[in-house]
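Q: Focus on the shape:
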Amino acid sequence: MCESRVPVRGKPAVFLDRDGVLCVEKGYVTRIRELEIFPYARKCIQNIHQSGFLAICITNQSAVGRGMMPEDTLVAINDYLVQELGLDALYYCPHLPPGADGNMPECSCRKPNTGMVDEAVRRFGIDRHASYMVGDRATDIQCGQKAGLQTVLLESGYGIEYSEQLVKPDDTYRDLEEFVRCCLTENRPR
């Protein structure tokens, strides 16, 4: 986990997936130079903060579990993202998905499990009912639903592919910029 701010108790949060939400979806990003942050992402994080929310990234990053990069490289990539965008925290799961390795039991942190959300809620005292999970995959929406968050599917990244699945988000937006403008900036925290 990477943090850049002092915890504030009782605030709502916007939980954000990394790839397809904050950054261009490119498959496995194994070097900082491969990370392409959306041009609007920094301003969106500023607007999230101005709307009274914490901005916390939660991301599955199985490239570590697959042996494609060491965990310290992932930590460096995540630290860079936290600093560039002004995120309050970033939590990641380096484990393989269930069934990818018969020797590895399922972890509690990999989305759609809620381990990363639960840890952030404990650390920051987050109000779940006033918080959002924003992602571009069905696993993001499932995680948000299991965690008791409002769920938002973005059509950026893989979002269009998942919009027809049985998992139904509370809202759908084109991208993070549209979500922040329509949902947060115009409708302050409840």
In short: The first helix runs from residue 41 to 50.
